Amino acid sequence: MTVTAEVGRWDALFATRTRGDVGDGIASVLALLGVPDVISFAGGFPDPDTFPRQRVSTLLEEFAATDEWSAFQYAPTRGLAGPLDALAERLEALQGRRPAERELLITSGGIEALELVGKTFLDRGDLVVIEGPTYLGAIQSFRRFESKLVAVPVDEQGLQVDELERRLTAGLRPKLVYSIPDHQNPAGVSLSTERREALVELARSTGFLIVEDVAYRELGFSEDALPSLWSLGPDVVVQAGTTSKTFFPGVRLGWAVGPADVTAQLVAAKQTTDQCAGALGQRLFEESQRRGWIDEQLVRSRALYQRKGDLMLEALGRSMPEGARWTRPRGGFFSWLTLPAGTDSAELARRAAERGVGIVPGSLFFPDDRGGDSVRLSFSLVDEAQITDGIERLGSLLRP
Ligand SMILES: Cc1ncc(COP(=O)(O)O)c(C=O)c1O
């Protein structure tokens, strides 16, 4: 007997919160990119050339040859002691503050850290301030808890903290303010030091929790990182981190660090997601950190992404028409392109796909109806040799 799936069969049973159109946007864009030979500025994936294949193989052989068992066993929910210590050491070296034992937990990627924060803090109708534009995964994650999202604009200096302050003065009362202060996804901008300090002060005076996402923090093209929000305000910040862009995403590893009473709740929430982040990935990360391999990998990754980013910016300068402008990232994976007046980014994405170029329309990075005049361009995964050609094809669609 053949059983065919009936579309819509389960709709009436889906939870109310899952019946919306969340996720359709990105699916329709990715469908356009199923075309072979596309030059894609769409995905935000790391370049596989950065993956530490040989070193992972060395470590696996070592684990197999010795009496290592922890890599193969369940781990405590907060994380294995060794990897927690290695991560704490890394945070101290890079952010100037070592988390206390009860302040840190290892998660299954940065997205899980956001999910655990949502699970812990958000009831239906609760207010979350996000940056406009922001990471699509965060929009989707916070929406799953039926929260209300309010996007405060970003400019070249990151989140407009003075605008947030105005809205707070006018009565806005968010539980959470989510920010990506370094080389933001999707806009490629970083929050200035003054604004970081002001944001932390606002959290203290108003009583919201800052959720700091540091996914691209270690991928600055120069060494001089600005102080993390968590280092400035460990009493009012929970930081969500990931090793996906600095190690490799196949291990699905990240962290949350914040006030001990907050992370205790995150640990409790994690017991019903995956119970613990995979021990194998934790041990691979620990050994790589202790041997200095993560830092070595980062030197090469930063150089690669800077080269690609520079190529893309040069190409934009040559190919974009009057009226187009774009951000100049100093790290990370993205530049945000604002189109000449009257150009619709969704329509442009469709036409670009027909010409073999993948881009993501800006509207996907807002919770409201903004972003129709912008697109996100990612330079992380695109083949270096194709960057100039891809941007020129895009420019040709925009020039009169
Ligand atoms: C801003 C931001 N946060 C979090 C993540 C999720 O990272 P992970 O792979 O660790 O879940 C990403 C991935 O693209 C991201 O861009």
Output the keywords.
single chain, 400 residues, alpha/beta, 13 helices, globular, binds pyridoxal-5'-phosphate
Describe this entry's structure for a reader.
With 400 residues, the chain is an alpha/beta fold. It contains 13 helices and 14 strands. It has helices at residues 24-32, 53-65, 81-95, 110-121, 136-143, 161-169, 193-206, 229-232, 260-270, 279-290, 293-319, 345-354, 387-398; strands at residues 39-40, 104-107, 127-132, 148-155, 158-159, 176-179, 209-213, 237-242, 254-257, 325-326, 334-338, 357-358, 360-361, 374-378. The chain has an eight-stranded mixed β-sheet, with helices on both faces. A hairpin with a 2-residue loop joins strand 4 and strand 5 (158-159). The chain starts with 23 loop residues before the first helix and ends with a helix. The protein binds pyridoxal-5'-phosphate (PLP). Pyridoxal-5'-phosphate (PLP) is lined by residues 44, 109-111, 135, 137, 180, 185, 213, 215, 242, 244, 249, 254.
